[in-house]
Amino acid sequence: MLSPRDTIQQITVRRHFFRLVVIVLIHTKVHAFRTSALFLSSGGTCCGIPSTFTTTVPSRKKNTQFGRLYISYSSFQEVDLLYNEYYALRHGRSLANEAGIIASDPNIACFEYGLSSEGQLQAKQAGIDVVRTFESGSFEGLLVLSSDLLRAKETAQAVFEQAKEAGIPMHRGEIVFQEWLRERGFGEWDGTSDSNYAKVWLDDEKNADHVNHQVESVSSVIKRVSVGLLEWDSQVQHIMIVCVAHGDVLQILQTAMKKMDGRLHRSLPHLETATLRKLGGQS
Questions:
Q1: CA atoms of 200 and 282, how far apart (whole Å)
Q2: Are 146 and 181 in contact (CB under 8 A)?
Q3: Distance of alpha carbon 117 from its chain centroid, rounded?
Q4: C-alpha span between 128 and 27 (Å, rounded)
Q5: Within 13 Å of residue 161, how many CA atoms lie on the same side as its CB?
Q6: Are 130 and 166 in contact (CB under 8 A)?
Q7: Could you count the other beta carbons within 10 Å of the beta carbon of residue 166?
Q8: What is the pLDDT of residues 94-152, one digit of tens each?
């Protein structure tokens, strides 16, 4: 038979255990809310992503020096403080630029329309720009993400080689190719004159969801680049991340980073070939 003293000790232990369980449950719920909130807009979904979509976010402190990401082109829902610093780098001048044609079909552009001679020189200079930017910051490493279209791959390779020569610690030790950084799909306009971009952009200004002539919508681009970027932000921190990609996909990504309506992507300063631009910062 337990003495009154033993009974009191058991009750005390149980109370402490119950408090611990409550604390753990509260922490778990708060963490789960923070995780899902990365993807929520005011309508309960973000760019078509269900509110039940989750990702594993490691426990870490917020780094307030980095930017914010806005992934709803209409409601401007703020996601969270990002844990890395992101830069857009458009590929160097390509053979498609030289020919004045639209080249967005990955079945062709992954193998054709690489960099022109001028573009190769631009890509090397872009690598120097990346090195200088890295050295002026306080990053723990450099990660180069790239579209797998040939012109972007060749640009990313030039950047990677410059960074290695400079002795910069490379996260993953290699370029990471990502399909979510591919050029926007231009549908029926693919392979035609690049003067047709203007027709697409006029439609963009009217409706971010339009798919006229089988063009990929602005909303669709926002969805894929936002999810891709957030996935990386959940895995690493204090890294300079360079996204080597294409004109339209990077113009649209900038609207997400600047809390802008995606329809206005052409109102931002045009991102020239082989130009490095901080995402979320000043142009």
A1: 26
A2: yes
A3: 29
A4: 45
A5: 10
A6: no
A7: 15
A8: 999 999 999 999 999 999 999 999 999 999 999 999 999 999 999 999 999 999 999 99
Nearest to 68 by CA among 261, 224, 226, 283: 226
For the chain, helix, strand, coil in percent to 5 are: 50, 15, 40
Q: Output phi, psi for 132, to 5 deg.
A: -60, -40
Per DSSP, helices labelled H in the chain are 4-37, 95-99, 106-109, 117-135, 150-165, 197-206, 218-233, 247-257
* pTM of the entire predicted model: 0.75
Provide the residue type at 174 as one letter.
Answer: E
249 closest CA partner among 173, 156, 176, 147: 147
The candidate with the shortest Cα–Cα distance to 234, out of 78, 65, 41, 34, is 34
**Identity of residue 75:** S
Q: Contact, 95 vs 114, CB < 8 A?
A: yes
Which residues are within 8 A (CB) of 206 and not within 5 positions of it... i.e. 6 or more apart? 263
Instruction: Report residue 76 as tokens.
Output: 């401007």
